[in-house]
From TrEMBL:
This is VanZ family protein. It comes from Neiella litorisoli. InterPro entries: VanZ-like. It comes from the Bacteria. The keyword RNA-binding does not apply. PANTHER family: DOMAIN PROTEIN, PUTATIVE (AFU_ORTHOLOGUE AFUA_3G10980)-RELATED. The chain crosses the membrane at residues 12-31, 43-58, 65-85, 97-114. Keywords: Membrane, Transmembrane, Transmembrane helix. Residues 38-112 form the VanZ-like domain.
Amino acid sequence: MLSSLLNHRRLFQSMFILAIIAVSWTCLMPLEQPPIDINHGDKLLHMLAYLALGLLLERAAPERFVPWGALALLAYSGVIELVQQQTGYRTGSWADMLANGSGILLALVLRPLVLRMASPLSQRQHTS
């Protein structure tokens, strides 16, 4: 069941597009207060957002994720940080880029696990 769900490419393409829209919106809207009130909480949110984007993109286009998808996400992250600088009410930072890159890197590290979960059970039993 899980492997079947993880192989619905169109579903993940749609989810990725929605996630990109959501991340873009939240990164560019005015922010009155930090989203979570813990030390470096915003960096944690950056990392989690880009981890989610990376995992969704990996399922949406697995054959292109390494390296092109990961590099495209990092470039998108840089564009968002630059655009934030231009808004007048948000700031971009290298620390945010580092947190974003950490999320993308974590998605790359978790990729073998996701691929294993996505493979049919019969295929996994033959490799064990």
